[in-house]
Amino acid sequence: MAFRYMVSLSLAVVVLADQSSHVSISLGGAPAVSHHSSSHHTHSHHAPPSYHHQPTYHSQPAYHPAPAYQPQPSYKHEHEPAVPACAANTSKAWCLQDAEYPTYEIKHAVEYHYEKVLSLYADVAELNTELSVERPDTLEEETYLCPSETAYVRPLRAQNTEGKWRVIVNNIDAHYQTLTQTTRLEECLTSADACPLVPECYESKCLQKSMYHRFLVYDSYDQYFPFAIETFKLPASCACLLGAYTIDH
After folding, report:
1. Which end of the chain is more exposed for a tag (fewer CB within 10 A), N or C?
2. Residue 47 has what DSSP assignment?
3. Is 223 exposed, middle or buried (0-12, 13-18, 19+ CB in 10 A)?
4. Around Cβ 172, how many Cβ atoms within 10 Å?
């Protein structure tokens, strides 16, 4: 009976030891036996969190505004030609017609620099185109003794006093205003010939006279301010130069 009691007690101890994580049992003076828990509690070993590298933020490039539109000439030349196409088949130093005239470019530049251009334009005298250019038809009224051709014109290009061809600002609409530059031209038809209305006993010669005229010009290759006032030498009148009186025997 005592033996059964001891066995039951041992079984109870074993059960209790199984529920404990670590129990030391000593039976009859025997050395203590260490029993580890048979249930093997599973410990979750979580892996350390992976630290993602922060993305490298590159500094954004500084914003540079788009460059202002610079008008390009409609004619494709790296430099202004010495003689423009409009003057290729004439000996005159001006053009009244010009297929390559940069109207759009001039208008854009005028609107961009309007106040400054207007101050220059006001400095250029505008001739009165209503003046009559009809020639007198009687000898008593004849002031010009040599035949000539007179006209009021608005040149688009002309050769300045330095011999360089320039684009003249003419017929340009900007800010509800039309910029025009008019000049009077008179060309001798018989330059260097004897004056037809002077008696032969006088030495005479038809002489072309010129005047200096100022025009507002446009230079497409000047990126800062493409306007200036330059001087041009243009035919102004046809005079009769009289020499000494001579008698031919």
Report:
1. C
2. P
3. exposed
4. 21
- Closest by alpha carbon to 200, among 139, 146, 247, 145? 247
Terminal C-alpha separation, the chain: 192
Give the C-alpha distances (Å, rounded to integers) separating 240 from 106, 176, 219.
41, 45, 39
For the chain, what percent of residues have pLDDT higher than 90? 41
Distance CA 121, CA 172 (A): 12
Does residue 60 carry a pLDDT above 60?
Answer: no
> What span, in angstroms and rounded, lies between the C-alpha atoms of 189 and 170?
27
In the structure encoding, which two tokens stand for residue 146, read together?
Answer: 């040599």
| Per-residue pLDDT reduced to its tens digit, 124-153 | 855 554 444 444 444 344 456 789 999 999
For residue 245 the two structure tokens come to: 């009186």
Q: Phi then psi for 110, rounded to 5 degrees?
A: -65, -45
DSSP structure class, residue 118? H
pLDDT digits (tens, 9 = 90+) for 173-217: 998 889 999 999 999 998 889 888 788 888 888 999 999 999 999
Query: Distance between CA 120 and CA 117 in Å, rounded?
Result: 5
- Main-chain dihedrals φ then ψ at residue 228, nearest 5 degrees: -160, 165
